[in-house]
Amino acid sequence: MNGSHGLRRGRKARAFSMSTGRRIVPIRPLSWARKALFAAGLSLASMAQPAASAPAAGELSVELNRLAENGDACRMSLVYTNGLGVTVEALELETVLFDREGGASRFLVVKSQPLIPGKIRVSQYDLAGMACADVGFLLINDVVACKGEGLDPAACLARLSPSSRTRADLVVTEADREPASAGSE
Questions:
Q1: DSSP 8-state secondary structure symbol assigned to residue 132
Q2: 68-to-74, 153, 169, 170 alpha-carbon distances in Å
Q3: Are 135 and 67 in contact (CB under 8 A)?
Q4: DSSP assignments along 15-76, one per residue
Q5: Beta-carbon neighbour count of residue 64 at 10 Å?
Q6: What are the C-alpha distances in Å from 130 to residues 6, 28, 138?
Q7: pLDDT tens-digit series, residues 9-59
Q8: Bridge partners of 81?
């Protein structure tokens, strides 16, 4: 025995919980096989999630991703994904914010940074003096600007694919989408 600690040489010390009296088993590091299974599980789990980065070919995806209180403002996060195949140098959307009762509350022009094909771009906008609970839905009223090779505002409006992860919808009217689809046939 080691005189000062009461342990025998050659034997490992075992730890016990003071509250339960049970032996504490150390966690073993993951073997390479366990790491591979863990990574495969994460991979499968990520494939089950909706892919914001994969819009349909020929679409310009705009997602109302989050509404969060930010002081006396409601911070709105929009996620843009370009499936058009060409870079959108400038995109400006005229939007109308409706309150919970359906009344038009504000007109906003939101601008994005350049949208590279397949790249996800997130932009945030603060709605000063507005509580997020008061937001009913957001209408994309028009495309003010859409600059890129072979693009114009009408073509971009017809190719918009709005969605929302919040209780407030992001919408564009079907009438706005019809002219380009009729012209492409």
A1: G
A2: 6, 30, 15, 16
A3: yes
A4: EE-TTT-PEEPPPPPPPHHHHHHHHHHHHHHHHHS--TT-PPTT-EEEEEEEEEEETTEEEE
A5: 23
A6: 68, 52, 14
A7: 554 545 555 555 555 544 445 455 555 544 555 444 444 444 444 566 789
A8: 61, 120
- Cα(16)–Cα(18) distance, integer angstroms: 6
Tokens 């025998």 correspond to 8
Dihedral of CA atoms 62, 65, 67, 70 in degrees, nearest 10, equals -100
In order of start, what are the domains of the chain with their CATH numbers? 60-183 (2.60.40)
Pick the closest to residue 70 from 20, 29, 130 (CA basis).
Answer: 130
The H-or-E segment that residue 178 falls in is helix 174-183
